[in-house]
């Protein structure tokens, strides 16, 4: 089909996620046609390095034949099996066991979802049920972190702390609360790690105090805040927050939807942070975006409390596509690829990415460079001393995204002048060098743009 007629059909019929509908209609869609390794090609034949792995999800890279074969094999043999009625499928059972085997501590119970939002939403339901089962249903207040993102489900979007997900939607609910982010570059307490940790600990204690510990159910964090602009907490931050939650009897939920499956180096960021949460949510890299799937990891304690509390009664939470066999078969193959070279390659490529972005730190527009492994960002400012953000009226993120695209690079351009990177773990040195060179070119062009300066 001709590109122009696709654009017309898209404009008329396809509603896009997190978009200005009128803005999108005006600009028209860019149609992606194919992908290989770390590169994608659009319908005009323009090939780009995908510095964002789709939506931080194609961790294994494009065109991995063994994933395609695993999905095809499973579709031929058994394309669907429900988990209802006590039924199941071999790939789902095997994937649950393999994940539990690699998860931190006693996160031995896996509940499969369709993606990250419903994984987060499932934790909210499980946590409510957990306290119901314990006989303390008044513990029903939830705390998360400013700049955090926990999906866009009806309940999860209220744990998300980005205004665009709230405006017009009637969230957050009155049981959803926030504490300030650790955001080191713009933290009122400065950038010294211990000061940031102390401030976050004090903020969490104060919030719990205000609500009453007997009412607080859970605290949600991302090991690195992704959609808020790739905000990396200081080393020890996760552990300090986990300790407070344990002390105050609050469940700790680590949302690893972005950080899971090698994005920061190891299979899960919690392993590097040396903490065991009560729940862990994952998606994206679980199936590398080839098919949809998410997973909630639950500790022995939580699982057994829920199970014992219900006794022989059914726990009414489930989806038609929970533990989908094709997704599970893909998950098993991704895990095998990660452990047979991709994680290692990701660590190596991540060092090159970090060094490359650091080399841009002297550019007049670059105020901050941050990241861990294959997850990174640069924050652009017009005045480094004052940390002045790019003028929002000029829609800098749209301009930066478009320029990078023309330069053959897909990046995430956040609204606040932050450029995000999350390339596939299969990146070669050349791929990483192209990401850096094309970023440099994009920055130089932005510097010449009178509306953005
Ligand atoms: N949690 C986090 C930390 C995420 O980054 C995302 C997605 N970017 C989600 C939850 C929601 O996942 P999904 O888009 O698959 O619903």
Which structural class do the helices and strands define? alpha/beta
How many strands appear in the DSSP assignment?
Answer: 16
N/C terminus separation: 41 Å
What is the CATH architecture assignment of the largest domain? 3-Layer(aba) Sandwich
Strand content: 15-25%
* Major sheet characteristics: 7 strands, mixed
Shape: globular
Summarize the structure in words:
This protein has 453 residues and is of the alpha/beta class. It folds into two domains: 3-63 and 343-447, Aspartate Aminotransferase, domain 1 (Alpha-Beta Complex), CATH 3.90.1150; 81-323, Aspartate Aminotransferase, domain 2. Helices cover 40% and strands 16% of the residues. The chain has helices spanning 3-13, 21-27, 53-56, 65-77, 90-102, 116-134, 156-159, 193-211, 237-247, 269-273, 300-310, 325-358, 396-406, 429-447; strands at 32-36, 39-42, 47-50, 109-113, 141-145, 176-179, 216-221, 251-255, 279-282, 294-298, 366-372, 375-383, 388-389, 409-410, 412-413, 418-421. It has a seven-stranded mixed sheet with strand order 4-10-9-8-7-5-6, sandwiched between helices. Strands 11, 12, 13, 15 and 16 form a five-stranded antiparallel sheet that branches. Strands 1-2-3-14 form a four-stranded mixed sheet. A hairpin with a 2-residue loop joins strand 11 (366-372) and strand 12 (375-383). Helix 6 packs across helix 11 (300-310), helix 12 (325-358) crosses helix 14 and helix 13 (396-406) packs across helix 14 (429-447). The longest helix is centred in the last third of the chain and has 34 residues, at 325-358. The radius of gyration is 22 Å and the shape is globular. The model has no long low-confidence stretch (mean pLDDT 97). 4'-deoxy-4'-aminopyridoxal-5'-phosphate (PMP) binds next to helix 6.
């Amino acid at each position: 089909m001709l590109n122009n007629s696709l654009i017309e059909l898209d404009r008329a019929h396809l509603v896009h996620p997190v978009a200005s509908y009128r803005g999108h209609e005006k600009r028209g869609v860019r149609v992606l046609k194919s992908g290989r390794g770390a590169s994608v090609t659009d319908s005009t034949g323009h090939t780009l390095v995908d510095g964002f792995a789709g939506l931080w999800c194609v961790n294994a890279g494009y065109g991995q034949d063994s994933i395609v074969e695993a999905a095809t094999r499973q579709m031929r043999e058994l394309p669907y099996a429900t988990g209802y009625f006590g039924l199941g499928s071999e790939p789902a059972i095997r994937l649950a066991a393999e994940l539990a085997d690699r998860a931190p501590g006693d996160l031995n119970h896996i509940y499969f979802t369709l993606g990250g939002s419903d994984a987060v939403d499932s934790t909210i339901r499980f946590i409510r049920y957990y306290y119901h089962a314990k006989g303390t249903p008044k513990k029903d207040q939830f705390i998360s972190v400013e700049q955090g993102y926990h999906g866009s489900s009806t309940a999860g979007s209220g744990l998300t702390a980005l205004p665009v997900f709230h405006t017009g939607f009637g969230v957050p609910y009155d049981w959803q609360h926030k504490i300030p982010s650790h955001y080191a570059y713009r933290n009122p307490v400065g950038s010294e790690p211990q000061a940031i940790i102390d401030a976050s600990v004090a903020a969490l204690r104060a919030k719990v105090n205000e609500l009453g510990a007997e009412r607080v159910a859970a605290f949600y964090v991302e090991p690195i805040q992704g959609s808020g602009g790739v905000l990396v907490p200081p080393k020890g931050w996760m552990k300090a927050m986990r300790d407070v939650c344990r002390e105050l009897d609050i469940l700790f939920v680590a949302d690893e939807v972005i950080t899971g499956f090698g994005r920061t180096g190891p299979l899960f960021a919690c392993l590097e942070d040396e903490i065991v949460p009560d729940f862990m949510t994952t998606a994206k890299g679980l199936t590398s975006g080839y098919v949809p799937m998410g997973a909630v990891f639950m500790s022995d304690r939580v699982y057994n409390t829920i199970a014992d509390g219900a006794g022989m009664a059914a726990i009414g939470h489930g989806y038609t596509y929970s533990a989908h066999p094709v997704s599970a078969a893909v998950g098993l193959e991704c895990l095998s690829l990660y452990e047979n070279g991709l994680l290692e390659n990701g660590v190596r490529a991540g060092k090159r990415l970090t060094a490359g972005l650091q080399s841009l730190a002297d550019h007049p527009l670059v105020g901050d460079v941050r990241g861990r492994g294959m997850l990174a960002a640069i924050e652009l400012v017009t005045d480094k001393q004052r940390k002045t953000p790019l003028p929002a009226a000029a829609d800098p993120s749209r301009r930066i995204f478009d320029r990078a695209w023309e330069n053959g690079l897909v990046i995430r351009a956040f609204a606040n002048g932050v450029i995000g990177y999350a390339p596939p773990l299969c990146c070669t040195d050349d791929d990483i060098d192209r990401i850096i060179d094309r970023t440099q070119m994009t920055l130089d062009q932005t510097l010449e743009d009178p509306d953005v300066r």
